[in-house]
C-alpha cells in the first residue's frame, strides 16, 4: 500500500471527527456564528502566512529545480490566498486594521505552525511535506463533501467555493503523488517518522476547528509572550 493511502487510513477516525465537527457542520448549513468564523479567519490568516514559509522551506529542501519551482509556486499561491482572505473576508466581516494589529495567535494556531517548522527544520523534503499534506488534503475532502451544501450565507458560500475548485484538486493530487514517491523504499523507521508528522498535523487540523468553536485563549501572561 502506498504511504499516503496507509496514513490516510490510519488517521481516518481523526479526519471523520473533522468532517463532523460542529464548526464544519454549522458552516455547511449556514448557522455558524459569525463571531466564531471571524475568529477562525483571523487565526487562519496567521496560519497561512506561516504555511507559505514552510512551503518555501520545501523549495529549499528540494533536490531538483522543478520541485523547487513547484514549492516556490505553491508558496506564492498561499500568499495570494492569504492576501485575498485579508481583502475579501476581512472586508466582509468588518475586521478593522486595529483589530488585526492587536491579533495574537491562539494556542492551537501557534502549536500547529510550530510543528510544521519543526518538521521542516529538523528534517528533509519528505518530513516537510508529510507535515504540510493534511492541510491540503483534508480541506480538499471537506470541499468535496460540502460541494452541494448551500449555506445561503454569502461568506460561507464563498469559503466552500474556494475549496471545492478543480484547481485545488490538482494541487492535492500533485502533492500526494510527490509524497508517495519520496516515501518509496524508505526504511520502516523513517516511514514511522513521516507518519507521525502527518498524524500530528491531522490532529492539529481537528483542533483548529475546536480552537475557533471555543474561541481558545491563553492565560493573560502567556498571551503577552506569544506573537
Ligand atoms: C488550518 C488550515 N488548514 C488548511 C487550510 C487549507 N489550505 C491552506 S494553504 C493551502 C494550500 C493552497 O493555498 C490550503 C489548502 C487552511 N486554510 N487552514
Task: Write structural notes for this entry.
- The protein has 12 helices and no strands.
- The mean pLDDT is 93.
- It starts with a helix and ends with a helix.
- With 227 residues, it is mainly alpha-helical.
- Bound molecules: the ligand Cc1ncc(C[n+]2csc(CCO)c2C)c(N)n1.
- This is Aminopyrimidine aminohydrolase.
- Pfam families: TENA_THI-4 (PF03070).
- It is an enzyme of class 3 (hydrolase).
- Belongs to the TenA family.
What is the compact description of this entry?
It is an enzyme of class 3 (hydrolase). Helices cover 81% and strands 0% of the residues.
List the helices and strands and how they pair.
Blueprint: H1 3-10, H2 12-19, H3 22-29, H4 34-61, H5 65-93, H6 97-101, H7 107-122, H8 125-146, H9 154-163, H10 166-183, H11 188-213, H12 220-225
Helix pairs in contact: 2-11, 4-5, 4-7, 4-8, 4-11, 7-8, 7-11, 8-9, 8-10, 8-11
The chain binds ligand VIB.
Q: Calculate Rg over CA atoms.
A: 17 Å
CATH 2nd-level architecture:
Up-down Bundle
* Succession of helices and strands: HHHHHHHHHHHH
| CATH topology description | Heme Oxygenase, Chain A
Q: Briefly, what CATH class?
A: Mainly Alpha
Distance between the termini: 41 Å
What is bound: which ligands? the ligand Cc1ncc(C[n+]2csc(CCO)c2C)c(N)n1
Helix percent reads over 70%
**Main beta sheet: strand number and arrangement?**
none
The residue ranges in which pLDDT falls below 50 over 5 or more consecutive positions are none
Mean pLDDT: 93
Query: How does the overall form come out from the CA principal axes?
Result: globular
Total helical elements: 12
Number of domains: 1
Quickly give the structural class: mainly alpha
Number of strands: 0
Strand content bin: under 5%
For this structure, what is the CATH homologous superfamily? Heme oxygenase-like
Function: Catalyzes an amino-pyrimidine hydrolysis reaction at the C5' of the pyrimidine moiety of thiamine compounds, a reaction that is part of a thiamine salvage pathway.
GO molecular function, one term: thiaminase activity
Keywords: Hydrolase, Thiamine biosynthesis
Organism: Bhargavaea ullalensis
